[in-house]
Amino acid sequence: QKEVEQNSGPLSVPEGAIASLNCTYSDRVSQSFFWYRQYSGKSPELIMSIYSNGDKEDGRFTAQLNKASQYVSLLIRDSQPSDSATYLCAVWFPGANNLFFGTGTRLTVIP
Amino acid sequence: DTAVSQTPKYLVTQMGNDKSIKCEQNLGHDTMYWYKQDSKKFLKIMFSYNNKELIINETVPNRFSPKSPDKAHLNLHINSLELGDSAVYFCASSQVGTPLHFGNGTRLTVT
After folding, report:
1. CB–CB of A90/A102 below 8 Å?
2. Which residues in chain B show pLDDT less than 50?
3. Alpha-carbon torsion, ordered B24, B27, B30, B31, to 10 deg
4. A9 vs A56, higher pLDDT
5. B100 to A103: CB separation less than 8 angstroms, yes or no
6. Which chain A residue has its CA at the smallest distance from B98's CA?
7. Which pLDDT score, from 0 to 100, does residue B82 have?
8. A contacts of B87 (beta carbons < 8 Å)
């Protein structure tokens, strides 16, 4: 069973706070993990990719991966109203040779 | 230049009709995909295809068929459209295991 699970939210944080988005996946052999942001009516856009255990930082975004726990997260520091969107966790399942998405977490940053 | 382009952007049609959505990518990627996003924003893989292999999600009705005239194109043909087919359909492309690049989506409405 190929599963990627996220809390659907909505998640609301005040402007300037840290937003924490979580994701778990079912396939222990997965090696490639991605976070996409999707604004309403738009297509998903890649914001982070991570392949190794630990943290990966890019500007205000930090992705965290723990393969032993089959867990990947995204932290958004100094959240801005423009960060309000749905965030999709995606995991490459080698056995299926495809990318599977979680249901997404809707984030609202309150000014 | 648009990396992944799909047409039309909007498609309104009646039940029972047959329709096609076209997709083209100019990124030189080996693999192309079709995803369906329902009203709850869940992105579900329908097909992935490269010049060697077609991978079909087993839950996709056989009324849906991908057609690839060449490596840069993957069109989606739908027969006997049903109300439940209403959704946004996204085309994407990638190299295996790397992030997907999405088209802008086609909003299909079946009346």
Report:
1. yes
2. none
3. -50
4. A56
5. no
6. A32
7. 97
8. none
Residue A46 is nearest to which of B40, B97, B99, comparing CB atoms?
A: B99
Q: Which chain A residues are within 8 Å of B55, Cβ to Cβ?
A: 96-98
CA distance B85 to B38: 9
Closest CA relative to residue A57, chosen from A68, A36, A73, A41: A73
Contact A99 B41 (CB under 8 A): no
Tokens of B48: 């992935």
Q: Which residues of A touch B66 (CB under 8 A)?
A: none
CA quadruple B90, A83, B97, A24: dihedral, nearest 10: -100
Q: Which residue has the higher pLDDT, A37 or A99?
A: A37
Neighbours of B17 (CB within 10 A): 13
